[in-house]
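#lab-general

N.A. 3:47 PM
ok so I finally got the sequence cleaned up, no stray characters, all 620 residues accounted for. can someone with queue access submit it? mine expired

B.Y. 3:52 PM
send it over

N.A. 3:53 PM
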Amino acid sequence: MLSVTRRHMAPLLAGLVVAVTTGALPALAEGLKGTGGPVHGLALGHELKYPADFTHFDYVNPDAPKGGSVTLAALGSFDSLNPFIIKGSPGAGSSSIYDTLMSSPQDEIFAQYGLLAETVEVPDDNSWVQYVLREEARFHDGHPIRAEDVIWTFENLRDKGRPFYRYYYGNVENVVAVDDRTVRFEFKPGHNAELSLILGQLPVLPKHYWADRDFEKTTLEAPLGSGPYRIASVDAGRAVVMERVEDYWGVDLPVNKGRDNYDRIRYEYYRDPTVALEAFKAGNIDIRAENTAKFWATAYDIPAVKDGRIIKQKFPHGRSAGMQAYVMNIRKPMFQDVRVREAISLAWDFEWVNANITYGAYTRTESFFANSELAATGLPEGEELEILESLRGRIPDQVFTEPYAPPKTDGSGNNRENLRKAYGLLQQAGWVVKDKKLINAETGEAFKFEIMLRGEALVPHTQPLVRGLKRLGIEANIRTVEDAQYESRLENYDFDMIVSGWGQSLSPGNEQRDFWGSETADRPGGRNLIGVQDPAIDELIELVISAPNRDSLVQRTRALDRVLLWHQFVIPMFHIDVDRIAYWNRFGMPDKPIPLQGVDTSAWWIDPEKDAALQQKGRN
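B.Y. 4:20 PM
back already:
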């Protein structure tokens, strides 16, 4: 399951669930069990941390003061405030104005607690899930949130929303209103343990608002929401301003206490990360999550950091790192041979890049589920081996004989040994060098392709790949494109190679269909960027989705991971187990340990004393 959070500045959370329990029930680690009636939360394989009478999450300050304004940076541009459809580029914050049925805490792996839903119920056979909405739940116009809104939202997201919703909700057979406040999702036959919690992440939109509007069109009219913030103003393509709803219906709910503390949040758009960085240093941006190691190492040597007006801080996290990679589009003929893909992977020298471009900040990614127990390691055994044996002959033979590891070098920049191996693989695949160019021996066509990048940030990392490929006779050209063109080409899979990735929760499930499922390969706007169409991988995906317990989920995910890796679809890049955040020293934050999923900046607040001191010192 992919977790979706409405919080404005929180990192992606993991929030997948299989077993259901309350604080009064025993742990149910061996699969999904019935709740025995309506309960306040759901969890996987452990007792919920928070009992039915909890008052707030442990990692927040429930007495955090509210007030003040904060400005954040967004990159590129936007032309819509409808984030649920394939058309347009949605503005920052446009999905955060809606409450969801349930809310996921940062300090549990597999848990959700009621937000719009007062209670949730699951039967022993896991054939449905039922939510009872809170009587007091309201949209911003005062209209009560009712079962008809939930049903309208579900049906429109599934039928008219972005393609991934069709697969995310694919195992729902029917949705019915039991009464005005009670909605039941009935499931198709088959085991889909996480589905009850997937539906808890559903944002609920107002049916009455959309009655005379076209849901499938882009809009810059601020839509009606229900959450702690509403869209106050829009400067098309340049800025979005959110304002805290003073009479927000859910302000005192335990899942909200101590969060959403700013009166106004302004998202200011910048054309690229470098310009956004300069805006932060000039005092125009308050908080910056730094994703560029070079910037973190070199760009903050300024007076404001030295005298404490700006704080640089690393916040540890326990999230799965997923996979960031150079992604090969195997819809293109030149990438359809696995030997070619492996050869291209051998041409990138991570060790040199890490030492010379990224200041040694990163760990090489070796799994689609990196930084988690879900990553395939060593050779398969136990249930994982049994699964892979059932697919023998339909999956790469290496899964049985060799632990996967990306190519390694000594970091000197001399990648000769890997390039020699790469050329041997290319020869086996029918490519030969002629006049210093790699030529298809059968067609005479030269091997050349484009690496499409969104902006300049990853150009230095990519140039060593281009140089390595040139030594093999391959002409690879870097092309940086502006945001709108990039999105358009991405949605239509009009690229040869890109840098992209797949975020993973600590309990994967239905979203894997959208990542690698055969049915998604040719559907515009999906996330099967590679173009995977493989029945064996489809079977592995369904095994992950139907895992009966945590142990089985881990083994099945490792099998999927191992097969994906040995298909050599990507050149794995790198990851880091901390969040690097720089911020102007005007914020208070909870004096609590950082939760498992990482720092929750929506639980920060403006500290009046710090803010006054900063104003006195100035930001210049």
